[in-house]
Automatic annotation (TrEMBL):
UniProt keywords, alphabetically: Lyase
A Pfam cross-reference name: Glyoxalase
Domain (VOC) ranges: 4-126
Protein's name according to its UniProt entry: Lactoylglutathione lyase-like lyase
Species classification: Bacteria, Pseudomonadati, Pseudomonadota, Gammaproteobacteria, Chromatiales
Signal peptide interval: none
SUPFAM superfamilies per the UniProt record, alphabetical: Glyoxalase/Bleomycin resistance protein/Dihydroxybiphenyl dioxygenase (SSF54593)
Length: 138
């Protein structure tokens, strides 16, 4: 795995209030985003805000209780094959497969694994945009 984090997505209870906090309160630069999600540019990565229940549903876990901690860490790659390779690498290293890589509603391809402490990582390929350097440059 290349040493980078593409995006940290926080599952929030009130998207509009969270957008106000990060954009106006902290001064993070908000990108154009669909109404159900917000993205902010950071140096070398993004911060994403998404409804807690919707984010849990995307990972295939319950929103309440111990199954979902309220955020995921996303690692974007440049192809579906790279998603599959990294998912296999993570599982081989001891990660728990949470959601096998598959085509997803937003037009990309992604899957989820949990690290040994249960933190969720999404490995994704988005054909509409690429976040991060080409793998050979990282």
């Amino acid at each position: 795995m290349k040493p980078r984090i593409s995006m940290i997505t926080l599952g929030v209870s009130d998207l509009q209030e969270s957008v106000r906090f990060y954009e106006q309160g902290l001064g993070l630069p908000k990108m154009d985003s669909p109404p159900e999600v917000a993205f902010f540019t950071l140096k070398g990565s993004w911060l994403g805000l998404y409804g807690r229940r919707s984010l849990a549903e995307d990972a295939g876990l319950p929103a309440d209780g111990s199954g979902f901690t309220g955020f995921t860490i996303a690692h974007n790659v440049d192809s579906e094959a790279a998603v599959d390779e990294l998912m296999e690498q993570a599982v081989a290293a001891g990660a728990k497969l949470v959601k096998p890589a598959q085509k997803v509603f937003w037009g990309g391809y992604s899957g989820y694994f949990a690290d040994p402490d249960g933190y969720l990582w999404e490995v994704a390929h988005n054909p509409l945009f690429w976040v991060g350097p080409k793998d050979e440059d990282a």
